[in-house]
Amino acid sequence: MFRSNIPTSEITPKEVYLSRRDFMKAAAVTAAGALLAACAPRASSSDAPAPAVELTDTLTPLEDVTSYNNYYEFSGDKQAVGPLARNFHPRPWDVEVGGLVNNPKTYAIEDLLAKFPQEERVYRLRCVEAWSMVIPWTGFPLAKLLAEAQPASAARYVRFVSVLRPEEMPGQKSPFYQWPYQEGLRLDEAMNDLTLLATGLYGEPLPNQNGAPIRLVVPWKYGFKSIKGIVKIELTDSQPETLWNTASPREYGFYSNVNPSVPHPRWSQASERRIGEFARRPTLMFNGYEKEVAYLYEGMDLKLNY
Ligand SMILES: Nc1nc2c(c(=O)[nH]1)N[C@H]1C(S)=C(S)[C@@H](COP(=O)(O)O)O[C@H]1N2
Ligand SMILES: [Mo]
Predict the structure, then answer these.
(1) Mutation test of ligand 1: which of 70, 77, 221 has the most ligand atoms closer than 8 Å to its C-beta?
(2) What's the pTM?
């Protein structure tokens, strides 16, 4: 089912929305397109690599994607997140883009959806807990929003902040974490074409438990970098604090690139459990996106900069 011979050029993005069944068929094809698109700025047109890994990775069923979730604002129990998130209201919603930019602006979610064409991207998601999924997202590259914001010359990092709504998010009553959830990327990581602002999955708007109405997806980093329920994007000149780094700096570094040779202090990262599979599979460097992102870390010691 996921090995199709239909050339990408014969699939138009709109066909993806016909139905979930058609979406799944189209998504297998789109995966190749997404990878080629991702490579476009760095590969010459004649030597685009064959996206073999994408085409053989089976999509994780929607039921699993929406019932096994990390979203600590609701609960630390993955199966409890979905039911608790039913009371969350993803509308109305604004995203404030500011800090070190020449064109700060607050966007209503409807503006973002209208302004930036929504693309399909099938990505692997690798949680730091050593499980993984394959998810067909819809969204748009963060780089397009940053281009519109016009980073000032002093900008080096991007800070992301999640919604703070303890009345709807019972986990935010926990004193063990510093709310709201925050994350950060270096500006060049944020500008990489793989870095996506996702607004949907499986051709539907994002379910609440997956971060409605808008979340980040950074597929070469551990899942906790892919912050959900974003209300603020701020350009800064210094490395932003992040929730997990503040909670346990030795276990959760700022970079948190998927790396099979750097173990978590309490477990190995050499292999992982793909949800829906029995045998463990080897973890891939940068979660399999090495060609697209290795240039970001040239000359860096990734054991020190974990
Ligand atoms: N705001 C917020 N974003 C978050 C989290 C969270 O607890 N709060 N959990 C992260 C973790 S640990 C993972 S693995 C992914 C899970 O995304 P999914 O539920 O859509 O698969 O979301 C990440 N984004
Ligand atoms: Mo995670």
Answers:
(1) 70
(2) 0.86
